[in-house]
Design a protein that fits this description.
Structural class: alpha/beta
Strand order of the largest sheet: 9-10-11-12-14-13
Helix content: 40-55%
Largest sheet: 6 strands, mixed
Number of helices: 18
Distance between the termini: 33 Å
Number of domains: 2
Radius of gyration: 22 Å
Strand content: 15-25%
Amino acid sequence: MMIKRQILPRLRQSLAQFPAVALLGPRQVGKTTLARSLAGGEAVFLDLERPADVARLRDAETYLESVSGRFVIVDEVQRMPELFPVLRVLIDRNRRPGRFLLLGSASPALRRQAAESLAGRIDYLELAPFTLDEVGATTENLQKLLLRGGFPESFLGPSDKASLRWRHAFIRTFIEQDLPQLGINIPAAQIRRFWQMLAHLHGQIWNASQIAASLGLTPPTMRRYLDILADTYMVRILPPLHANLGKRLIKSPRVYLRDSGLLHALLGIETLDALLAHPIAGAAWEGTVIEHLLTHAPEHAQPHFYRTVAGAELDLVLETPAGLRAFEAKFGLNPKLSRGYHQALGDLGIACGTVVYSGEDIYRMTPDANVASLQEAIREAGRSA
């Protein structure tokens, strides 16, 4: 089953403008499949996990010069940081757009490596797991996406059991193989325990001391582990909005597992019925909504949450040149708003927010709250420019 990715038009635009484009995202999210769909018969595809392709690049300048008229795709490019200065030399000789598409799964390291050599020559895009608009906005797909998450092999699995088996295998491979290949040497049992702890604290305020005490480690070690999972697209660190309002604000970030399917695998949730009965269901929906909205939000939108000590709170605030846009996630078909929602809008001077629930109808709940389906909220986030 071939699913058209919503990033494809933007990827084509970047390739038409920049000599190099980096498509980043977690392992197994579909970067290679998407790249191959762009590759014509003359394209050169190099996978840096294949020894034969690594051998071709032992003298990278000579080899890439020999294919200079062709579209070159380099997969797992973070494995060969010494390639970036070579790409700069080749691009400076011929700044034709669309020469190189670089696929990578470790964002900060790759960005640092590329920034030193390819500044002004490269654009960065992120491929996220499937979103509802890509798989089709039906109730069945929404439920499946919430339970299984958006990794293609997980979402498209023939059954919930098969999907869960894939996710457990992904987690094991990520911990035991992917992290060491990135030069991250942490005992597998330790990082797994930390990841599971984050799953239980999904959507909550980050408290390094609390987690460190539970795991018998230090707060700086906990922050290092958190940054590793964020850098590899497993975790989202959502910062608070530091508005100058004279309010006592929560200053620590919130932490979410970015894929609900991995969240449920780590928590041992196997079926939709089990999820609906689990206390994490509301937070799982909140994280799913946030990931969908941020995948579709304009590039310049800066995401935050808002919370004061007094209880005013919003799940997501998008900061754009046009102003602040507020979103609140509510799981279920009869969303109810707390006083804190209305207070937060008043604090920030936002006339009306969007309440994203798991139903399909769209309606005005109160003068300051529009209720929307996830599909409609995606469109709303995209209009936040």
